[in-house]
Amino acid sequence: MTYEIIILCIAAFAAGFIDAIVGGGGLVQTPATLVTLKQYPLATLLGTTKIPSFFGASIAAVQYSIKVKLNWKLLAMMCSIALTAAYAGSKTVAVVSNSFMKPILFVVLILVAIYTYTKKDFGQSVKTSLTKNNKIIYCLLFALIIGFYDGFIGPGAGSFMVLFFISVLGFDFLRASAHSKLLNVSTNIGSILYFSGSANILYFYAIPMAVFNFAGSLLGARLAILKGNKFIRIFFLVVVSGTIIRFGYDIFFKK
Questions:
Q1: What are the sequence ranges of the domains in the chain?
Q2: 167 pLDDT exceeds 90?
Q3: pLDDT band at 195 (very low <50, low <70, confident <90, very high)
Q4: 97-134: per-residue pLDDT in tens?
Q5: By the 8 A CB rule, do 232 and 163 touch?
Q6: Contact (CB, 8 A) for 48 and 33
């Protein structure tokens, strides 16, 4: 049992670090939990990972909010919708397989990686041509989709959040990461409400993982703020590539 906690805490630290910068920490934390604690039901393991994810996202959000200007009104609307949608997504995962989504995401992420790599100025400055009303509509619709997705399947959600804030709202990478953390906090809360209410959280593992995820997120957020947009762009490409490999393995090789 001691070695299990050590493995999970290392994974949680790495996940927190990655997630604080561009999202995608679930690519490390979720598989590590599924492999290390494979004797438990899937819903219980997914619920357990939400506790450290919440603490990590929360400290990253605090760090970003101190240094980066946030659109609090827009975030309030998006977070309330995302929380509810994440609750529904987590409830759905208990009865419906999420494997059908992976081939779609696999193709989308490849296109995202190619676009980000070839378009060097992507996410390097703040610019948008959307009207205020269109911006609100797109944001609320995205909050609904990403909230459900994060509760339903999880890995890569943070990266999709960053991508949305850059491509649709015209944010740079730093501001996009900052807004994504607040949104990610709300999706984690929605999932935790469902999983805790259905007794699907192993607190013996979740609490020490939360401490290490918290530490990794603190370090990751500070590094992102210090290094700025170019560093975050490179990290984004690395994480998206990792997501592509993970989904590709699940689709083509995992039985």
A1: 2-252
A2: no
A3: very high
A4: 655 556 766 776 677 667 666 665 544 555 556 677 88
A5: no
A6: yes
Structure tokens at 202: 């192993």
Q: From the centroid of its chain, how far is CA 76?
A: 18
Helices (H), 23-41: 26-36
Helix, strand, coil percentages in the chain from 3-state DSSP, rounded to 5: 80, 0, 20
Instruction: Please give the single-letter amino acid code of residue 58.
Output: S
Given a contact cutoff of 8 angstroms between Cβ atoms, the answer to whether 144 and 81 are in contact is yes
Contact partners, residue 143, CB within 8 Å, separation at least 6: 77, 78, 79, 81, 82, 85, 183
Name the phi and psi angles at 64, rounded to 5. -65, -40
Question: Per the structure block, which two tokens stand in for 129?
Answer: 């041509």
134-158 tens-digit pLDDT: 889 999 999 999 999 899 877 778 8
pTM of the model: 0.83
Residue whose token pair is 């561009």: 22
